[in-house]
Task: structure prediction
Amino acid sequence: MFIDEIKVHARAGHGGKGCVAFLREAYRPKGGPSGGNGGLGGDVILEADHDLNNLIAQFFKPKLLAENGDDGMGKGMDGHAGADLLVKVPCGTLVWRLAPSPGAIVEPAPNSDQDLEAPKPRLPSGRILQRGDVKALEIDLEGEEGSPESLPEAAKGDLVADLTEHGQRFVLCRGGRGGLGNRNFATATRQAPRFAQPGEPGDEGDFIFELRLMADVGLVGYPNAGKSTLLTAISKARPKIAPYPFTTLHPQIGIVEYPDWSRLVVCDVPGLIEGAHLNVGLGHAFLRHIKRCKILVLLLDMAGTDGRTPWDDYRQLRQELEYYDATMLEKTILVAANKMDEEASAGNLKKFKRRVPKTPVLEIAAAFDVGLDAFLNKIRLATEAAGR
Result:
């Protein structure tokens, strides 16, 4: 099962309560206040991991709950801090914070006249932690970057994190601070305080995790154009192949290896249809996976097996990309003419070049490994030129 979008509920641990206690020992029957502080609640932390390829773990565990801090105890003993909850997600995961639904009751955090001392230094929620926690980079939520670009994304709320590098961390919810025990409130005029602070609640909220695959090359085309066959021919990926449309139901990843040990990551996106930019045929679920690709390959069925013409397919695919996100056309786009082993392919290719002039075409027959060497060299050069 491939899961690339999931809604989760996250809650950091609550801080422990401060203790009201007085020291009672031999020879000290009326000792002073000795209530300890409550422990700090645990954080909910996300970490990008390149060994994961989908959000299946969150599908089976949509509630992310960190441990609460322990309450303070007598004799000045502080409560233990709650353990942080570390959640690993695949590289390329975006995190959207959902706004509270209208009419929802949100309880404010308890106010305190005292400045709570945290038992250990914490980074505030909304910051990305680099490997080793050497430095923190706060995400700017007010600038243009990171703001939703389309209506479906705007409905998801605010973008709070984009985890793209292995080991990158993000504090999703910060744990509440523990309350101070009564020993912290003893003064010369108030030597026996009989009150303590309650612990602060941890951050809590609903989020959407959205995966956008990290790939160098994205294969785009109509259903039954031969994308899965091409991916099988150039890599060790083995997607399902059958002679009917929509055989591929979710994106497939393949690794292309070259003789000099260099590699390219190729993403096979399920077939697009007319109106994909309007989410027809789950268009948004497929199109978002190629937004991070360095180059795109438009794979055309040059034989017109399904009764469509290759030049119409080419124009329609570019139109769908433009309508979904105009910046997609700024990428390097290669055109590959597949099924050149068919009789009708040669004639259709001549018509295609007349109707779509000044567009280089790579002629291949993926099922018979024809033209694949030139195809692999071309995508390698194009990827390097795009800044690999």
Remarks:
- Residues 108-151 have pLDDT under 50 and may be disordered.
- DSSP finds seven helices and 16 strands in the chain.
- The chain has two domains: 1-211, 217-385.
